[in-house]
Write a structure and sequence with these properties.
Elements: E1 6-10, E2 13-22, H1 30-37, H2 40-43, E3 52-57, E4 65-73, E5 84-88, E6 91-99, H3 103-117, E7 120-122, E8 128-132, E9 142-151
Antiparallel strand pairs: 1-6, 2-4, 2-5, 3-4, 3-8, 6-9, 7-9, 8-9
């Protein structure tokens, strides 16, 4: 796998959804997405933009992590019971496009190959997220991994 990312600067935005606590970023987030769907009708009118977001609320993907399943919203008003709103701070991202079924392989490539040879390193002060465009159903549906980066310090 040789996937070259786009490097994109993105401003702060808000995501509303449900948060779950997991042993690692390799966990199965499917049940959390099912829980999100129980709030979908209440959150949908607040939506800002298309698609869904899976936000990793922690930088170290090898340790326990909180994960937010939801959508971008304009404002944090009328938050349904059981839902949460979090800011995703502005950051510079390496954006990797891949099919849904290749998320794990793509993260493996990022950690094991791309970061080793790239001019960038992970920006552990920022959060990363997966973006699922409208119509993402799994399998070979396209999606994007937004991995927070900063230029590598080259002393």
């Amino acid at each position: 796998m040789t996937v070259e990312p786009k490097i994109v600067s993105r401003e702060t935005f808000k995501v509303m959804g449900v948060v779950g606590h997991f042993c690692s970023a390799a966990a199965n987030f499917g049940p959390l997405w099912n829980e999100y769907m129980t709030h979908h009708d209440q959150i949908e009118p607040l939506r800002a933009g298309e698609g869904h977001y899976g936000v990793y609320l922690g930088a170290d993907h090898t340790k326990a992590i909180d994960y937010l399943a939801g959508v971008a919203v304009r404002e944090a008003v009328d938050v349904p019971v059981g839902a949460e709103v979090r800011d995703v701070p502005s950051a510079l991202y390496a954006v990797f496009a891949c099919p849904f079924q290749a998320i794990g392989l793509t993260y493996g490539y990022i950690w094991d190959k791309w970061l080793q040879s790239s001019a960038y390193e992970q920006d552990s002060t920022r959060v990363g997220f997966d973006y699922y465009p409208p119509g993402t159903t799994g399998g070979d549906s396209p999606m994007e991994i937004w991995f927070p980066v900063k230029l590598r310090d080259r002393h």
